[in-house]
Design brief:
- It is a single chain.
- Helix content is 26%, strand content 19%.
- By secondary structure, the protein is of the alpha/beta class.
- It has two domains: 206 residues, L-asparaginase, N-terminal domain (Rossmann fold), CATH 3.40.50; 131 residues, Rossmann fold, CATH 3.40.50.
- Helix 3 crosses helix 8.
- The longest helix is centred in the N-terminal third of the chain and has 13 residues.
- The chain is globular and about 65 Å long.
């Protein structure tokens, strides 16, 4: 892994609110282009870094973000990995947690910071949160420890003074500047007068292993959210999707579902057909414990896989990657129950030992 004397940082502009300006005729927000960033944020020139930037073409509203765009971003990072010491991805907030989760799995053994950020107000607005988010993200991407190694060699989201592991993060606020939270894992750093890092929480990659990007994703995955009064015909319609390969089941509390024989039978049939079902709680904080109540045990007996304390975004994108790799169902079940890159609170990550990455 090459580290340069003066940090080389690449900014990847994908689109989103941070780079928008109000159309004087329609009043709608429109992307204004990459060149305006240096004009609006002249403070970037004060960094003693080599900063380059590129924009995706066309720019993407985050609501339009799809797996093919994650692959494009991964290719950009892979193609320029040796030239740069850190990456900052400017992204819309609506799907930022999905992109961060996907990249955390796609960029295996990444040894450099990949920081996603954006803003709730366009960077050209007087009260924007975009300037602080951008400038601090650049500083974090360039930060090194006493040994000259990157402070945070993993995929993260920086927003409103918090640096969070990307695959632990969820958008929780559509109006406030504190748009993202990591409920089941502490923040990796807090930015105040200085940036205080938490080294014991940060993943340290195995420097003996190479960086290995993955580009294959399979999007034959659906979300099924349980709610009181959910109808059998609705569930049958959703689960009857042609080509379905995996389901993320959003259950109650610690992984519970209504005790309806027809629901357990449907889930058992899915398992028998080789369709993977992962149990994720609808709660932001906490973990799935299917042994705890009979309402959860029925799912375990039907072959449903435990999602532990994974975010929905993480479970969905992890499944897309494992399916894209073409692994057999048994292996995907096993990997969904293993801590690949700090996405669930089991395994060696708790002691800051580099986690075993089964993709290798």
């Amino acid at each position: 892994m090459q580290i340069h004397d003066k940090p080389n940082i690449l900014i990847i502009y994908t689109g989103g609110t941070i780079g928008m300006i109000e159309n004087p005729i329609t009043g709608a927000l429109e992307n204004f282009g990459l060149d305006r960033f240096r004009e609006i944020v002249p403070e970037m020139q004060q960094f003693d870094y080599n900063i380059e930037a590129l924009a995706m073409d066309p720019l993407i509203d985050s609501s339009d973000m799809e797996p093919r765009h994650w692959t494009e971003i991964a290719h950009i990072i892979a193609d320029s990995y040796e030239r740069f010491d850190g990456f900052v991805i400017l992204h819309g907030t609506d799907t930022m947690a999905y992109t961060a989760s996907a990249l955390s799995f796609m960029l295996e053994n990444v040894g450099k910071p990949v920081i996603l950020t954006g803003s709730q107000l366009p960077i050209g607005k007087l009260r924007t949160d975009g300037k602080e988010n951008l400038l601090t993200s650049i500083e974090i991407a360039a930060a090194r420890n006493e040994e000259g190694r990157p402070m945070v060699p993993e995929v993260c989201i920086y927003f409103d003074s918090r640096l969070m592991r990307g695959n632990r993060t969820t958008k929780v606020n559509a109006e406030g500047f504190n748009a993202f939270r990591s409920f089941n894992y502490p923040s990796l750093a807090h930015a105040g007068i200085s940036i205080k890092y938490e080294p014991h929480l940060i993943i340290r990659t195995d420097e003996k292993k190479p960086f290995k990007p993955h580009f294959k994703l399979d999007d034959h995955v659906i979300l099924l959210t349980l709610f009181p009064g959910i109808r059998r015909e609705y569930v049958e319609t959703v689960l009857g999707m042609k080509g379905l390969k995996a389901v993320v089941l959003k259950t109650y509390g610690s992984g519970n579902a209504p005790q309806r024989p027809w629901l357990a039978d449907m889930l058992q049939r899915l398992s028998d057909q080789g369709i993977i079902v992962v149990n994720n709680t609808q709660c932001y904080k906490g973990t799935v414990e299917m042994h705890r109540y009979e309402t959860g045990l029925q799912l375990l007996q039907a072959g449903v896989c435990n999602g532990f304390d994974s975010t929905i975004e993480s479970s969905v994108t992890k499944l897309m990657l494992l399916l894209g790799e073409g692994y057999p169902v048994e292996k995907i079940h096993r990997l969904m129950n293993e801590n690949m890159i700090g996405e669930i609170s089991i395994g060696p990550i708790a002691t800051n030992i580099p986690p075993y990455n089964p993709l290798s």
